[in-house]
Amino acid sequence: MDEMILEARHVSYAYDDGHTPSLNDLSLSVKKGSRTVFMGANGSGKSTFFLCCNGILRPDAGQISIAGKPIVYKRKELLKLRRKVGIVFQNPDVQLLSASVYQEIAFGPLNLGLTETEARARVEDMIARMGITPFKDRPAHALSGGQKKQVALADILVMAPDILILDEPFAALDPGHVRTLRALTDHLSDTGMTVIVATHDVDHALEWADDLILMKEGRVVAQGEPIRLLSDERVLEKADIHMPEVLKLYRKLIGKGLIDAALPAPKSFDELERYIERKA
After folding, report:
1. What is the DSSP letter of 4?
2. CATH assignment of 4-242?
3. Which of 99, 105, 121, 136 lies 20 to 30 Å (CA to CA) from residue 70?
């Protein structure tokens, strides 16, 4: 039986006006070690839910559990929670607070109670792994958008969380930084970390995710295997999401008799290309 590392039951949350709930009786679960993608239009509640997952926000109703234990909203317990659940925000500027890159990454380990020697070793290792050594002494605010994302991610990973949440991680990044970040999320997932990503990129969700959660108006529209949900026109219409291009092309090629209709729906263009070569 799959172990659930994150569970939400009937969670609701509304911002100050209280009239328009951002989360509306939301229930879902995330498997330990999974690659899970959240999708939905802006305002569907994804970011609000993530903030509830590490205690930045407290739900108005319902319960969120991490590794089977409900979140406890006391300072000591929230500090423990934020070591287990790390969030990299869409805009890294809201996350980076310290003067230099090194100081930024060192802040967390030092607050864990590590000695300065232990913290330094952990930070230096993370800086090397992330490939940010050339600018470790530079002011964080002076970095490029892609570099800030790298530092924000290092900021979280140095704490060795059980769950990593990436909110629109590829937004405003150049192709090089996108490739680097995708390779890193692959590696982290392969090591057993639970990686949760919010994205509008349906093609990436199809190819990368184990589990897909579609949200609209603070609720879960559907949850399940990406290939099943992203092939279902009724589900896509309900969630206001378009079908991945590779699946559109796959259907057209079947209609023209150019590939075998018995072949399973492909998750990538590379897989579809192999189908075409097999038919040729």
Report:
1. E
2. 3.40.50.300
3. 105
